[in-house]
Amino acid sequence: MWVVGIGLGANLGAREKTLQSAVDALARTPSITVRAASPIYETEPLGPPQPTYLNAAVRVETTLEPDALLDVLLAIESAHGRIRRERWGARTLDLDVLVVCDPESFDPRTITTPRLTVPHPHLLERTFALAPLLDVLPELAPRWGTTLRALGGPPVRAQGSQSIVVPERH
């Protein structure tokens, strides 16, 4: 089993509902248990002009190998209307495997496959991903908390947004 931090982002459509729907889809997936969800942050986009993002992260436990987990995330993105047209373009949903940790030590596992690099290669440069991740995996703060402070602190939490609800497993 692995503890995984998954980043969520959306800047098109009903952003908040999309984030919740994606977490619900993760919770319905066999071999994945959602354990925690971060607050929702509103952040400025990278790349071309586009609407602001809502970003969050979830902590999951899974027995899936990272490439199989990536397949699940890509299927959830597709089910939510994600079409990959341009790098850093607007999107209905973006799901990223940010970090895969040992369940006891929380040591991050380094993974490099043709499809996936974990930890996410730009994680420590992006407060919109790092801040929500540290909300759900505070065990990583001694390793990465100073980076968040060096980047100017966490992004702004979205005004009026509801928190993502962690679905109960039945």
UniProtKB/TrEMBL annotation:
<dbReference type="InterPro" id="IPR000550">
    <property type="entry name" value="Hppk"/>
</dbReference>
<comment type="function">
    <text>Catalyzes the transfer of pyrophosphate from adenosine triphosphate (ATP) to 6-hydroxymethyl-7,8-dihydropterin, an enzymatic step in folate biosynthesis pathway.</text>
</comment>
<protein>
    <recommendedName>
        <fullName>2-amino-4-hydroxy-6-hydroxymethyldihydropteridine pyrophosphokinase</fullName>
        <ecNumber>2.7.6.3</ecNumber>
    </recommendedName>
</protein>
<keyword id="KW-0547">Nucleotide-binding</keyword>
<dbReference type="GO" id="GO:0003848">
    <property type="term" value="F:2-amino-4-hydroxy-6-hydroxymethyldihydropteridine diphosphokinase activity"/>
</dbReference>
<dbReference type="GO" id="GO:0046654">
    <property type="term" value="P:tetrahydrofolate biosynthetic process"/>
</dbReference>
<feature type="domain" description="7,8-dihydro-6-hydroxymethylpterin-pyrophosphokinase">
    <location>
        <begin position="87"/>
        <end position="98"/>
    </location>
</feature>
<dbReference type="GO" id="GO:0016301">
    <property type="term" value="F:kinase activity"/>
</dbReference>
<dbReference type="Pfam" id="PF01288">
    <property type="entry name" value="HPPK"/>
</dbReference>
<dbReference type="GO" id="GO:0046656">
    <property type="term" value="P:folic acid biosynthetic process"/>
</dbReference>
<dbReference type="GO" id="GO:0005524">
    <property type="term" value="F:ATP binding"/>
</dbReference>
<keyword id="KW-0808">Transferase</keyword>
<keyword id="KW-0418">Kinase</keyword>
<comment type="pathway">
    <text>Cofactor biosynthesis; tetrahydrofolate biosynthesis; 2-amino-4-hydroxy-6-hydroxymethyl-7,8-dihydropteridine diphosphate from 7,8-dihydroneopterin triphosphate: step 4/4.</text>
</comment>
<keyword id="KW-0067">ATP-binding</keyword>
<comment type="similarity">
    <text>Belongs to the HPPK family.</text>
</comment>
<keyword id="KW-0289">Folate biosynthesis</keyword>
<dbReference type="InterPro" id="IPR035907">
    <property type="entry name" value="Hppk_sf"/>
</dbReference>
